[in-house]
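Researcher: Let's do a round of design. I'm pasting the structure tokens now; please hold your answer until I've finished.
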């Protein structure tokens, strides 16, 4: 069994997938727009035909699932972080800076008692990330 996060981006899913592709080297392995859904599904709200109904994003050996959600659906990424395990402190610093573009560094990458480097960042979409470089 695996736990795979499912993130809802309130109309910004395609932008997020592009951003994570560039920053994390992630690849979209599946993407379906609202207009591509089989007949008989839920009605597509006007103006949302091009929005993402479902996407799979491969990040290393992990998968993140995502969608745009529905109009008016609140977007809140509170109470959790996605954790990355970069191979080096330098890679953690690069990822922290890239994820913080349009977002906020919550804790710069630094040595801790448990890690060679640890940092936290909230990206432009409101998703919190932890970067943890362990020996």
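Researcher: That's everything. Go ahead.
Model: Designed sequence:
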């Amino acid at each position: 069994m695996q736990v795979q996060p499912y993130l809802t981006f309130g109309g910004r899913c395609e932008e997020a997938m592009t951003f994570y592709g560039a920053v994390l080297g992630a690849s979209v392995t599946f993407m379906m727009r609202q207009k591509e859904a089989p007949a008989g599904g839920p009605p597509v709200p006007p103006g949302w035909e091009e929005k993402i109904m479902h996407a799979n994003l491969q990040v290393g050996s992990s998968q993140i699932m995502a969608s745009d959600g529905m109009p008016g659906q609140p977007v809140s990424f509170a109470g959790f972080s996605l954790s990355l395990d970069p191979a080096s402190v330098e890679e953690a610093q690069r990822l922290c800076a890239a994820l913080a573009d349009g977002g906020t560094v919550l804790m710069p990458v630094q040595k801790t008692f448990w890690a060679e480097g640890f940092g936290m960042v909230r990206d432009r979409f409101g998703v919190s990330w932890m970067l943890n470089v362990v020996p």
